[in-house]
């Protein structure tokens, strides 16, 4: 008899080895694991140690064997070029198998690192799967990253091969990648000997003889190669996140745990089945692109949409809804910032109503805190259930979420919802003591972490232990703050450094942001702490207004101050509001609050490599200077 959510969760916490042994049966192993869970002396854990498998086989060959060869595996839609393509599972397998042979011919073998510096094109997904096919370890770096940042990643993983394209495309410009790659290779201490370049018609890259190779020429005459058998613990990919020391952290994802976790995720969390159309709205340069564009959907026999475009201006704020109607999307994932951008330009849903969304069952949002105002607007405008959920690059799949594939799971607006089976989520104070319902502190996960979560950093295991396991012994330190309510719903209030201290009171800027965002004129906002001689810190709100919102700045400030005072109290000392045209964000949609704090306090700052548009910082600096 199938388990409901509560039964599954309790089983996963009481006996994680037995629970995940059962889930592992959904994976087509070459050799099924008999060793399910082993604890190491340093507190990390190993899952499915003796299991043997291949991720590319699970995503492609297995689906063909199951009769899905002629089903569409991948849909590519690029409003910036007008190109639309469909790849069946058989076609995608053939492309992957041929590129894998090219890699082998260029000297790439099992365990070698390959950097993929690509735009959102099908070849990026093909390259990931081709690496997985031969046991190479890929590291996808967001196309357009600064040369210095790319050089840091090259030196950390020392790739045998680098893949790139001649350019990436925005709605208003062409970004040539090759000059950025050339500069990165000049800066790097361990550059690869060869670079494979995909020439796009929008810009042709000049190739350096002896090093640079043309993608299509190399594929000419290539033969298909089969998947190689790998150990469960063999690394599938490296995903770099920003490090506080300036050196990026290379999160390592293993083949076996990733496969088990993503099979569970697509089916039990997102409620997807073979034949369903899934749209992970992200970039392959982020963990969402790995888990929810390439590996997860394909392992489950879904059709996955790969989109090269923006929520707005490609061509307008109806672009997402056009995709849903055209491809009959059943469920999607995106960041809240994307929906806030759509809401800003189409606040009354006039563009949305031009499209048939009847195929869409639900929307999942993560990456930033989903404010209740956007949540309510999205549900009312689409008429579909909207679910907030929370996870991290390090976990690779959701930590908290409603589980659509488990009966009895419920969703609550304002919360990131219950912990997913496998995650024992707790809240502790600065001394590591467990806190009760409603008490804010650091969000932690009791060990062992479930399968799929990173257990090390590439080439630097001591740094992993220090960053994640030493602050609160026995727990994984998420770096996020929040609380659990009496029903076990998890509320993520932001990074722990987004808690400010006002006259001795520890207050969450995330809670204030939620209140500010509820104002009918506000499209999105960020609340940061700024220095104050008397109170230590006080909050300041940076607000982006909806298009056409005719509101006086003084009136807006008075209304927002009154709103926060009523809900939180005078102790918040919330009195400063500044209207800005836009907020600085990473390319994944996260607001750069740390940079905003430095600007507001007059500290020196540099535009991080992850920023979407560096010019925003100067605009905001001017506003705060005048204000």
What does this structure look like?
It is a single chain. With 627 residues, the protein is of the alpha/beta class. Helix content is 32%, strand content 23%. The chain has 18 helices and 29 strands. The strands form nine sheets. Strands 5-4-17-16-18-19-20 form a seven-stranded mixed β-sheet, with helices on both faces. It has a five-stranded parallel β-sheet with strand order 7-6-8-11-12. Helix 1 crosses helix 2, helix 3 crosses helix 5 and helix 17 (593-601) crosses helix 18.
Kindly report the average pLDDT value: 92
Strand fraction band?
15-25%
- Report low-confidence residues grouped into runs of 5 or more: none
Helical stretch tally: 18
Compile the SSE list and pairings.
Elements: H1 5-14, H2 16-23, E1 37-39, E2 45-47, E3 52-53, H3 55-68, E4 72-78, E5 83-88, H4 89-105, E6 113-117, H5 122-134, E7 137-140, H6 147-157, E8 161-165, E9 167-169, E10 174-176, H7 178-187, E11 194-198, E12 212-214, H8 215-219, E13 230-231, E14 235-241, E15 249-254, H9 255-269, E16 277-280, H10 287-299, E17 303-307, H11 319-327, E18 331-334, H12 336-345, E19 362-365, H13 372-382, E20 386-388, E21 424-428, E22 441-446, H14 461-469, E23 475-484, E24 490-495, E25 499-502, E26 505-508, H15 509-517, E27 522-532, E28 536-545, H16 553-567, E29 576-579, H17 593-601, H18 615-626
Parallel strand pairs: 4-17, 6-7, 6-8, 8-11, 11-12, 16-17, 16-18, 18-19, 19-20, 28-29
Antiparallel strand pairs: 1-2, 3-13, 4-5, 9-10, 14-15, 21-22, 22-23, 23-24, 25-26, 27-28
Helix pairs in contact: 1-2, 3-4, 3-5, 3-10, 4-5, 6-7, 9-10, 17-18
